[in-house]
Design goal:
This protein is of the alpha+beta class. It contains four helices and 13 strands. It has two domains: 85 residues, no CATH class; 119 residues, OB fold (Dihydrolipoamide Acetyltransferase, E2P) (Beta Barrel), CATH 2.40.50.140. The strands form four sheets. Strands 5, 6, 7, 8, 9, 10 and 13 form a seven-stranded antiparallel beta sheet that branches. Strands 1-2 form a two-stranded antiparallel ribbon.
């Protein structure tokens, strides 16, 4: 929606290229440091786009947003003219260390999990995740938590370090706020590594090696 001196004009059905020009003009005229425009990428081939995507993580972004120049602004999750092409997530194999009960339909199950990586002979927590398991797997892990609790801290249960899960995340950076010294973005469970025991999980150094 833009505003002129005489009337407001709905531009949502105008082509993207026209809306972008209006937005660039608005940001330039406003001259406010909080107003930032996403950059436009030049390319002449599909390979150029692939290379832009591969370099996305080095600039701390999730990937590319591809939009048809003639596309209109649609409400909701419309597909076809806009395409979010994320970089492949980073992954690490970690040990389940703590669990909490979930919310809603998961209120009776321990589904909110904390994971750790090895540093010498100790597990250092680095991420929490609650999505990625099937309903059957959630019930199985819940039974494990209840049977293998070693200590309780209010609603949190510390469990025997036995189960290994592959954890995916979109980005990683050094962080002085976390005990591990590392912060990961959007962690979630990819799969239950039933083929591994706890001693075969990754180390904290393995995780830090992923920082670019």
């Amino acid at each position: 929606m833009t505003c002129s001196k005489t009337k407001e004009v709905d531009i949502r059905q105008s082509p993207l290229v026209e809306r972008r020009e209006l937005l660039e003009k608005l940001v330039l005229e406003a001259g406010h440091p909080a107003l930032l425009l996403s950059s436009k990428l030049a390319f002449t081939s599909w390979q150029d786009i692939v290379q832009h995507r591969e370099h996305a993580r080095t600039t701390s972004i999730e990937g590319l947003m591809l939009k048809r120049r003639s596309s209109t602004y649609e409400v909701g999750r419309k597909r076809g003219d806009w395409w979010k092409w994320k970089v492949d997530p980073l992954t690490i194999d970690a040990v389940l260390t703590f669990s909490m009960q979930g919310h809603g339909r998961r209120a009776d199950l321990y589904t909110d999990h904390t994971f750790g990586l090895w540093q010498d002979d100790k597990l250092v927590t680095f991420a929490k995740a609650y999505s990625g398991l099937t309903d059957a797997e959630m019930k199985e892990v819940d039974a494990f938590v209840k049977k293998n609790t070693v200590e309780r801290f209010g609603p949190v249960r510390q469990v025997e370090p036995q189960l290994v899960f592959e954890i995916a995340f979109e980005g990683i950076s050094s962080s002085s706020r976390h005990k591990s010294g590392v912060a990961v973005r959007f962690p979630r469970i990819v799969r239950w590594r039933r083929d591994k025991n706890a001693s075969e999980a990754n180390t904290l150094d393995d995780l830090k090696a992923l920082i670019s």
